[in-house]
Amino acid sequence: xxxxxxxxTSFVLLGFLAAHPRSGYDIKSHADHSTRFFWQxxxxxxxxxxxxxxxxxLAAQQxxxxxxxxxxxxxxxxxxxxxxxxxxxxxxxxxxxxxxDEMLLKLFFSDAAGTAxxxxxxxxxxxxxxxxxxxxxxxEPRVKDIAASQASATKLDxxxxxxxxxxxxxDFLKGLxxxxx
Amino acid sequence: xxxxxxxxTSFVLLGFLAAHPRSGYDIKSHADHSTRFFWQxxxxxxxxxxxxxxxxxLAAQQxxxxxxxxxxxxxxxxxxxxxxxxxxxxxxxxxxxxxxDEMLLKLFFSDAAGTAxxxxxxxxxxxxxxxxxxxxxxxEPRVKDIAASQASATKLDxxxxxxxxxxxxxDFLKGLxxxxx
DNA sequence: CTGCACATGTAAATAGTTACATGATTTC
DNA sequence: GAAATCATGTAACTATTTACATGTGCAG
Lengths: 181, 181
Hints:
The structure is a homodimer. By secondary structure, the first copy, chain A, is of the alpha+beta class. Chain A is built from seven helices and four strands; from the N terminus they run αβααββαβααα. Chain A has helices at 8-19, 24-32, 43-55, 78-89, 102-109, 115-149, 154-180; strands spanning 22-23, 59-66, 69-76, 97-101. The longest helix of chain A has 35 residues, at 115-149. At the A-B interface, helix 1, helix 4, strand 4, helix 5 and helix 6 of A face helix 1, helix 4, strand 4, helix 5 and helix 6 of B.
C-alpha cells in the first residue's frame, strides 16, 4: 500500500481504534484474540500503517505509558471515524472472501494415496477443528465482557457464528470418518 | 518458489495430473470448478510451475491437440506420483488453514456505523452466501460424473461439505437478521 | 466477419509473513 | 539474575494476482 489510498489493513486499525485508543502492540494482541480467524494481521503491517494513518490525519499519536515504560498510543480522529463509516457503508467489491485450506486440498486429492492415508488426513483435520473450536470457546468470556462494556453483542455474535461454522465443518468430517470405517 | 523445493501449488498441479493428463488451461478451468472455494490458482502460477515440474522430472510434456490447435498436455511421471503420495501422507504443518472475509470484518466493526449499516452488511452477506451455495450446487452434477468415472466419492464429498459449511454460515446470518428486526 | 472460448505465457505490482534487531520492565 | 512479556520497528522474502501480449479456431 503506497501513496494515499486506504486498504483493508487501514480499516482494521481504524476499527480497533474506534472503540478506544491503543498501541500497535495492543491492536496485534487484541486482533489475535478476535479477528484472527477471519482476518489476520502482522506487526509488519501494523506499525508502518499506523504511521501512515497519522500522516493522512485519520489517527493521531498520543504519548502514553504503561507502568514506567513509554508506548505509542494512537487514537482515531474525526476524519478517521468518517473514513471508517464510509468504508462500512460501502458495498464490498466482489465477494471479499477467500479461504485456503491445505488439509482439505489433501483430502480432495487423497484418492491418489489410498484409504489409509485418507483416513489419517481426516483424523488430522478432525483434531484441527476440535482445537480451533476450543480456542474460539476460550475467547468467549473475554469477548462477552467487551460486548457488555460496549452495550452491543455484535462482536460476540461474530465469535458465536465462527464457532457454529467450524462446528458444521467438524460434523462434516465426522460423517466422512464414520462412512470410512 | 525458486530452486528445487515444492510448494502447495506444485502439489495442486500434480494432484490434477494424477487423475489424467491435461494442459495448463484445463487445470485452470477444472480448478475453477472444484478447488477454487478452498484453494485458488492463477495462470501466473500454473504455466511457470508446470515447466518446473518437467525440469524436476515430476511431470512430462506430450504434444497434444484439440481440433487443429496445438496444446501442451502434461502427464505425471512415476517420480511425480511418488512425490504427491509423500505429500499426502505427510502431516500438514501448522493448521494449513487461512481465511479472509472482508464482509465479516465489516460486520465485526459495524457498531461504529449504526444499525441501518449493520443491517445492510448482513443483507449483502446473505446474498453472497446464497449466490455461493447456488454456484456450488451447480457444480454437483459435473463432479458426480467425475466421481462415478473414478469410482470414488471423495471429490463429491468435499463439494457437499463445502455446501454444508456455507449453509451453516448462511443460517448464522439469517439468525442475526431476524434478531435485528 | 465478429465475437467468444481456447490457449500460453511473462512482467509488474501487490500483499503479507518472517526474520532480524533492539531494548525495557516485570515476575519468579 | 534469568525468563517472560511488553514494545517498536525494518528488511528481506514469499506468494499470489493482475495486466499485458499474442494468437488460433469455431459458432452464429
